[in-house]
Amino acid sequence: MKVAALFEEEPRRWGLRGDPHLWRALRLRLADEDLPGSVEEVMDLVRAAFGELAGTDLDSAPENSAPENSAPEQMVYREQYAHGGMSSGWISLGTWREQLIPLIAERAAAALAAAALAAGGPIEGARIVLTPLTVGDAEEMTGVLGGEQLYGFTGGRPPTAGELRTRYARQVAGRSADGREEWRNWIIRRAADGQAVGFVQATIAERAGEEVAEIAWVVGLAWQGNGYAGEAARALVGWLDARGVAAIQAHIHPGHTASAAVARSAGLVPAGQFEDGEQLWRRRRPD
Question: Which one of 53, 80, 146, 203 is most buried, by most CB atoms within 10 A?
Answer without folding.
Answer: 53
